[in-house]
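Consider the tokenized backbone below.
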């Protein structure tokens, strides 16, 4: 896995996003399917996420970026993707490790809210409704991976089948048939966005409270953002 704390890697990030060279502090924020880093530089503070194409394709990543920009243009308070000096949003990292790429976003400073009150919960619902509303724009063409039975099962099955015994092959064949039947029975339109896009990470600890400094150097709690993996919502 790529480590942004290595000098040659962070220098690549600094060059791509127009940051001052050798003047970045790198902080690991999270490490799961994709690593997230906070990059503190005299020019800007950004969040950089490093993806493997085995986890997320560049096609899907570009589709998500397009959605974020569309939501932002409609005044929905979402995290803003940051383009590089060449205006590209995706930084290829193949020269470091094949099959990896990075995306940067503006950084939002805030404190975690342990529990939302009634007003915050109501405003969250309003903003999620706006997120949903603008995600069903018929003019917004998102070129995403089609989650067909072939993609969900067949492609993986072809790779692992040579390593399975006869009893396991029989079980997987039955499993595939069940998945196909389930898709047909419920008429699941996974790729149809007629009903908008919803986000399931809907819990209070994924909320941030922003502090705004006043002229008298006193901290006053001013705004609240709800953030998810890729989305900020203003309360």
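A designed sequence for it:
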């Amino acid at each position: 896995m790529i480590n942004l704390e290595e000098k040659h890697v962070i220098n690549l990030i600094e060059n791509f996003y127009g940051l001052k060279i050798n003047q970045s502090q790198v902080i690991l924020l999270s490490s799961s399917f994709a690593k997230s880093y906070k990059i503190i530089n005299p020019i800007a503070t950004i969040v950089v996420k490093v993806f493997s194409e085995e986890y997320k394709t560049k096609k899907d990543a570009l589709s998500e970026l397009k959605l974020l920009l569309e939501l932002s243009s409609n005044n929905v308070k979402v995290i803003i993707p940051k383009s590089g000096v060449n205006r590209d949003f995706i930084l290829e990292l193949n020269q470091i490790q094949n099959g990896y790429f990075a995306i940067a976003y503006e950084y939002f400073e805030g404190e975690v809210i342990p529990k939302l009150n009634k007003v915050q919960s109501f405003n969250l619902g309003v903003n999620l409704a706006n997120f949903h509303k603008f995600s069903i724009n018929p003019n917004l063409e998102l070129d995403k991976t089609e989650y067909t039975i072939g993609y969900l099962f067949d492609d993986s099955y072809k790779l692992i089948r040579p390593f399975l015994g006869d009893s396991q092959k029989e079980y997987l064949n039955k499993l595939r048939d069940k998945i196909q039947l389930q898709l047909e029975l419920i008429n699941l339109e996974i790729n149809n966005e007629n009903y908008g896009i919803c986000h399931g990470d809907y819990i209070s600890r994924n909320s941030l409270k922003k502090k705004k400094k006043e002229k008298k150097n006193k901290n006053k709690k001013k705004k609240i953002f709800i953030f998810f993996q890729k989305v900020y919502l203003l309360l």
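The first helix runs from residue 7 to 17.
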